[in-house]
Amino acid sequence: MAPFIPQGLIPPELNFFFALVLGIAFGYVLEQAGFSSSRKLAGVFYGYDFVVLKVFFTAAITAMTGLLFMNYLGWIDMSLVYINPTFLWSSIVGGIIMGFGFIMGGFCPGTSITGAVIGKIDAMVFIAGLFLGVFIFGHFYHVFEPLYTGSFLGNMFVYDVFGISATGFGLLLAIMALIAFTLTQMIEDKVNRIPATEIKQRPSFRFPAFLLLASLFLLFVLPSQKPGRAGEISPETLVETLHTKQSYASMEKVLYHVLSQSEDIILIDTRDQTQYERFSLPMAVHIPMAEILDPRWQSFFRKDSRDKIFFSNGTTAATQAWIMARREGHDDVYIMEGGLNALFDLLFIQELPETNGLHTMEERFHYRFTEQARTFFREGMGVNPEESAPAAPLMPDYDRPTVVAGGC
Amino acid sequence: MEKNQLGALVLFFVLLFAAAIGINKIISGPYKISNTRISEKTASQELFISYEALHAHLSDNSLTSYQLLDLREEEAYASGHLEGAINIPFQDLSDKKARRILDQQKPLLLYAEAENKAAAAQLILFGLGYEQVQYIPGSYGDIALFVLNNYKPAHAFYRDDKARFDFPGFIREYTGQKETGPGSSFQIPEASSPAAAAGGC
């Protein structure tokens, strides 16, 4: 059910159940629309019954409008929805073949099943022919392959080709649909010779048509940027956390983690690839600051409950990453104080205080700890990430949902 | 369908979505710009203004087209600030009243006593709707030193977040050759320097 219901909320096995429910609903709708009758289906080619056009075009417009609204509200991320890629010539040839089959047989693949299950023999023959066609295609695949896989144009969108926005195209398509419904209705009445009196008695569709166009127009003109989400961390909290330094993690904490090779925190290097490869702290994960909101890292952030400490050379990139992470809702993120520059300064440049100048227990512990950290780094453990054998690189376990679009 | 039944159904859904949009606007909080858009902006380099550009503005007096914001405490501001800069201490940044002197449409430059505070303020203000906000790298001290007093092209792209050390090289160089105590028979061979060009014949 992804991406509408965020990944992970529903176990993938349950998808089969939803598929079953949706399939039954689809079959029910087709049957109720009369699509188990081949006469009704073929009517669209002869002009006496345009129900196929009306039902499918209406379904397309409804789904499109719903998706546009949900995309605007942020309930669905259209960039995660699988779109069939465009193979130009195979679509054209396949469409022609299917059109001929439709006229001759009076069914298309989906409706043939609805017809077959209510006992229509010609629908069953149609299905047999369908499988025969599949067999021929598979057996002679090497003949069809260049056509089947050729002219690949990628995931093209009509509105991209025309240079208009998705909502703009939605509005145009809805207008086209309404025009198509009106025209085909007129043709249908002419072919069936419906008397004018009967036509006048039909309910008017002006109100729902107006609503549809008005709402699509609204979506078209509204700015598409959705603002912050509900319950997002307030600017006051962000400012205060930064000001009172609650957002920082001390260098000692980071050093302790490195020395003890513990697994209780995660270090995240927010610099770019070149700098990370040149040098990074042992066991640090590389997430460049600009990629922090990438979906594959987001699932990692959500699933892992350990504290995450961002670092960079100074503190700027780490702070920027921290702000984005906190606005996204992750609370267990921190910024390493001083960054790598200060860390190196502490480990190598600064003079350790005189041992007889240390009075409190705390000072002595601090001295011993810093000395230990220095030895660790100077002995080369901190030099090369490969040499210090960090944990295996974190593979973000994010799998894109593959919604297989079915034919009809 | 019965007369007006379709109309009623469509109306129901339209109202449902309109209500959802309305609720969304109400509960969406103070941010005008989403986190995603911030992320997109960080991918480009427009977040800060370089010392070079700042110096250019100072030279031809075009800095007046910007609003300048000093995020330090009042005492620090009093002892010296960029000409024309207004003072809002960092902790008051989230206060709506304090922000009233700022114009959301005019470009805004900010600096603080530390670069990361300026960068943080830049992201927060951008999220609140200040479309054209940039931070000035470094602290005020750095700005005074590298731009105001004696601008040199070497400082054109100064940033706090650059590596001060050549980290791996530094470690190798610093730890260098292990000290061999007196009496040790082990002699660490010297790193072979590139052979001096053997001349001519």
Q: Can you lay out the helices and strands and say which pair or pack?
A:
The complex is a heterodimer of chains A (408) and B (201).
Chain A: H1 14-32, H2 38-46, H3 51-73, E1 86-87, H4 88-105, H5 109-117, H6 121-139, H7 141-149, E2 152-154, H8 158-162, H9 166-192, H10 196-200, H11 206-221, H12 235-243, E3 248-249, H13 251-260, E4 265-269, H14 273-278, E5 284-286, H15 295-303, E6 307-311, H16 316-327, E7 333-336, H17 339-349, H18 361-381
Parallel strand pairs in A: 3-7, 4-5, 4-6, 6-7
Antiparallel strand pairs in A: 1-2
Helix pairs in contact in A: 2-4, 3-9, 5-6, 9-11, 13-18
Chain B: H1 5-27, H2 35-43, H3 51-59, E1 67-70, H4 74-78, E2 85-87, H5 96-99, E3 108-111, H6 115-127, E4 133-135, H7 140-149, H8 167-175
Parallel strand pairs in B: 1-2, 1-3, 3-4
Helix pairs in contact in B: 3-7
Alpha-beta classification of chain A: mainly alpha
Mean pLDDT of chain A: 81
- Taking strands numbered 1, 2, ... along the chain, how are they ordered across the largest sheet of chain A? 3-7-6-4-5
Low-confidence stretches of chain A: 382-393, 397-408
Order of helices and strands of chain A: HHHEHHHHEHHHHHEHEHEHEHEHH
> How would you name the oligomeric state of the polypeptide chains in this document?
heterodimer
Helix coverage percent of chain B: 40-55%
Low-pLDDT residue spans of chain B: 177-201
* Main sheet summary of chain B: 4 strands, parallel
The N- and C-terminal alpha carbons of chain A lie at a distance of 20 Å
Number of strands of chain A: 7
Q: State the distance separating the first and last CA atoms of chain B.
A: 105 Å
In total, the number of strands of chain B is 4
Beta-strand share of residues of chain A: 5-15%
Radius of gyration of chain B: 28 Å
- What structural category characterises the helix and strand content of chain B? alpha/beta
Q: Mean pLDDT of chain B, as a whole number?
A: 77
